Amino acid sequence: MSDEKQQLEAIRDSFEKEFDRFSDALKDGFRGMKLSAAEKLAKELGEFRVKHTGKKSPISGAMKLIGRVAPEQRADFGKTVQSVRARIEGRIAETEDSLKSYIRSAKTKREAVDVTLPGRRVRSGHLHPMTLLRHKIEDIFVSMGYAIEDDREIETDHYNFDALNIPVGHPARESKDTFYTTGGFALRSQTSTVQIRAMERRGAPIKIIAPGRVFRRDTPDQTHTPVFHQIEGLCVDTDITMAHLKGTVSEWLRRMYGEETKTRFRPGYFPFTEPSAEFDFSCFKCSGTGEFEEAKCGTCRGSGWIELGGCGMVHPNVLEGCGIDHKVYSGFAFGFGLERMAALMYSLDDIRLMFENDVRFLRQFY
Ligand code: DAH
Predict the structure, then answer these.
(1) d(CA 259, CA 283)
(2) Residue whose CA is at the smallest distance from ligand 1 atom 13
(3) Of 28, 187, 225, 234, which is least packed with CB atoms within 10 Å of its CB?
């Protein structure tokens, strides 16, 4: 055998030997191969193709020898070179095709969507139960002609106490009850502060409610949190009497809890109102009977009444302090806490739930 033919045999042998590493996987159609491994193999196969068929490959070298072979052997040699080349290229192309289609189907499998699976529910956000309750109350008062007033949470002692006729030495002023900032400002301990600011700004007549956060130095427990919500109401006009106050509070509670709801006033004391009262309403659970399902009602503890807030006729000192002539105008005010209402409404035994933002709790109010 001529040298050239031997050389060709050697080229083919070395190709076959090196190709071995692909042939097993090819035989199995790459079954079970990981996508990443298949992609790596495809890259190696590309390099392998360059090495065995590229310009610098042994077979390309052999092509160049064709011209140098003796003329009588040239045709035969040329044929052999072509067939070796065809074999090499064919094996590589076959492997590439098969590997490519394997990769394609592996990718399709990975990205496949099972259209028969049920969809995942998208939960949309919703209002906090405290906000829902506030809106309900606001809607009722707005329908009675009240405007909604909002004001600052950090106040001076003047607005938090003095202007509300709370004398120096009154227990509410003590720093063990009120939060003070380093600059001597108070975090408002009641929304009654908004009465003052609103009267100063707008004068009389005025009809507002002021919902907002208030702050007191209470240790958190089931019924106390150092931050909570109040709604303040204020109505000042000519000839306003306690009957208007009773009528307004009664009407609001009837719209809140139903037509049959009754309201009762008990004598009370607040520095900013005179006379003052505390107001209760008949229990919505036992309809004021004190009994529910043949046992003592748990909502009103058997009394038939639920205590809600304070109210009264605005003290002349308060009106005058805001520049309103108490001989011309009179007014009533009331205030109550929202957490207590929410706790009773939703039968919560711990108002801290309202502040923890645990979505398992909040979701129930969707
Ligand atoms: N500010 C009172 C409190 O925090 C509630 C209150 C009582 C408000 C009587 C009033 C009122 O406007 O007239 O307990």
Answers:
(1) 13
(2) 311
(3) 28
Query: Does ligand 1 come within 6 angstroms of the Cβ of 304?
Result: no
Q: Which atom of ligand 1 is nearest to the CA of 191?
A: 1
* 86 shares its domain with 149: no
Does residue 121 lie within any of the structural domains?
Answer: no
Q: What is the pTM of this model?
A: 0.70
Going by alpha carbons, the residue nearest to atom 10 of ligand 1 is 334
Q: Is 334 in the pocket of ligand 1 (CB under 6 A)?
A: yes
pLDDT, tens only, 295-336: 999 999 999 999 999 999 999 999 999 999 999 999 999 999
- Ligand 1 centre to CA of 319 (Å) is 15
pLDDT of residue 32: 85
231 lines ligand 1 (CB under 6 A): no
84 and 183 share one domain: no
Those residues of the chain that have pLDDT short of 50 are none
Single out the residue in 78, 111, 144 at which a domain terminates. Answer: 111
Q: Are the C-beta atoms of residues 133 and 341 closer than 8 Å to each other?
A: yes
pLDDT in tens, 208-225: 999 999 999 999 999 999
Q: What is the pLDDT of residue 73?
A: 86
Tell me, what CATH number does 139's domain have? 3.30.930.10
Q: Which of 81, 111, 141 is the last residue of a domain?
A: 111
Going by alpha carbons, the residue nearest to atom 6 of ligand 1 is: 335
Q: Which residues are CB-neighbours of 244 under 8 A, at least 6 positions away?
A: 235, 332
Query: Would you say the CB of residue 160 lies under 6 angstroms from ligand 1?
Result: no
Q: Which domain holds residue 34?
A: 3-111
